[in-house]
Amino acid sequence: MIKIEQLSKSFGVKEVLKAINLSFEKGKVYGIVGANGAGKTTLFRCIAGLETHTGLIHSDKQPLKNHLGFLPTNPYFFPKITGWEYLQLFCIARKISIANFDEKNIFDLPLNQYAITYSTGMKKKLAMTAILLLKNDYFILDEPFNGVDIQSNIIITELIKKLKSLGKTIIISSHIFSTLSTTCDEIHLLKNGQFVRKVLPAEFTLLEQEMTDFTVGDSIDKLDLR
Amino acid sequence: MKYYFTLQYRMLNRHLRAFGLYPILGYLLAILLFIGGSFYIFSKTEYAAYIYAFFALSPLTLLSETKRTDFLKSCFPAKDYLKIRIAENLLVTLPFLLFLAFKNEWLVLLALALIAALMARFHFNNQFNYTLPTPFYKRPFEFIVGFRTTIGVIGFAYFLTIMGISVGNFNLGIFSLLVIFLTSFSFYAQPDSQFLVWIFSNTSRSFLIDKIKTGMAYVTVLALPILVGLGYFFLEKWNILLVFWGLGYLYLLTIILAKYAAFPRAMNLPESIFIVASIFFPPFLLFVIPFFYRRSIKNLNTVLA
């Protein structure tokens, strides 16, 4: 379990997260939605320990970062490092020995090629493979479906379900609502650095409609498209 | 077009400020270094003009990188694109052209200017699909990236060693050893991504020790052919060889610590001053190494347990 109490984060005078309270339980999938700049990525970085913050983050596994797989929105890749070497780096970092990466290569990535030459989706899949190899208990997936093809989309969805069945805790952010509605147990709406609403599966369709109405409104009409 | 060059100027100023220098001071230093370096090259060899032209053309390959030129092509009409590319190539080579004129090397000057202008029409792809094998693949990442990026320099250093041995010039051999160490230092010039440090389950201390052990082991692999060659053919000078070898390790240790003393930002002026001072006055290392170590631990503690 991860429990967040009164978590706040400011960049200069701008308060990005405002006294957030939330718990993430074992064996559940949590969706975090919000507009760009709402504070999702900052929240994830705070949980991961990549940002300083005020407030508390408790977890039943200590230190949390050593049990957490974090998939950033734009994973970082060194130039001239192959996919294989990238995976090796993660395994060395967590002192895990993997004899054969090829059999763990569920996305059929060209592991002998430089990772920097991969497409956006392939990079995402490589970073996803890396965190899956580390036997983590918690997963934060920031936009895991961004740029990936439809087949990989299906694999990632099934992976999330499998991780859930293994009792892992998964926190996802995505701008593709359908991917959240098929995987999440709860969706939390983040707005201006605060959680304003918790939505359960029965209300997912309603939430999607409300978000569409609120976001789109009459803005498209303003373009006067003909 | 004017706005494009204004933006380049602003970017350059921002880089200098990020390095900890006032732009005007940066430009003055660059001019002084350029003039000093130019006089030095011309005082050392009769082929200076050709080496000089090679140095001038090297940065142009970066400006001709495919992704960059594709971006410019998508922004500007074809005519303006060509004007921009010719102008920036000539601007980069201008200091070299001026010095060649000063040295009355008119033929090389003309050839350089022509090649620079012609290169505006070409673009190069830096990302080849071929994966260069490396002996360092088991411990990512500095030596893997560095080896693949500087393979030409490493090959050149080995060539110098062979030349030094064949003409009985020990100093040339030592120079090749220095090239290997300096090249290895450059592997640590870029800062680590904060995330790729965060993934480690080590403590800050054991993380640093691992980095140092890997660096020492791998630089030994790179330097070993030179050390064995020089040790065998210049056995009577083993003590000098040992001093340079030992100093190489000490400075590598200093560079690794300097990298993390600056973490998560890149090394800039303060670290550079300490490193340069310890190169000119090696006993200063006794102060610099513990100082960088303490700062590294403090900085790494922000993301490691």
Give the tags.
heterodimer, A: 226 residues, alpha/beta, Rossmann fold, 6-stranded mixed sheet, 3-stranded antiparallel sheet, 7 helices, 9 strands, B: 305 residues, 76% helix, globular
- The first-to-last residue Cα distance of chain A is 52 Å
Low-confidence runs of chain A: none
Percent helix of chain A, as a range, is 25-40%
Sum up the overall morphology of chain B in one term. Answer: globular
Measured by residues with Cβ under 8 Å of the partner chain's Cβ, the largest interface is:
A-B, 31 and 25 residues
Chain-averaged pLDDT of chain B: 89
Radius of gyration of chain A: 18 Å
Task: State the domain count of chain B.
Answer: 2
Can you describe this structure?
The complex is a heterodimer of chains A (226) and B (305). Chain A is an alpha/beta fold and 226 residues long. Chain A has a domain at 2-76 and 139-218: P-loop containing nucleotide triphosphate hydrolases (Rossmann fold), CATH 3.40.50.300. Chain A is built from seven helices and nine strands. Chain A has helices spanning 40-48, 83-93, 120-132, 150-165, 177-181, 204-216, 219-222, and strands at residues 2-11, 14-24, 29-33, 54-59, 68-71, 138-142, 169-173, 186-191, 194-199. In chain A, the strands form two sheets. Chain A has a six-stranded mixed beta sheet, sandwiched between helices. A three-stranded antiparallel beta sheet of chain A has the order 2-1-4, covered by helices on one side. In chain A, helix 4 links the parallel strand 6 and strand 7 (169-173). Chain A is globular, with a radius of gyration of 18 Å. Chain B has 305 residues and is mostly helical. Helices cover 76% and strands 0% of the residues of chain B. Chain B is globular, with a radius of gyration of 22 Å. At the A-B interface, helix 2 of A face helix 7 and helix 10 of B.
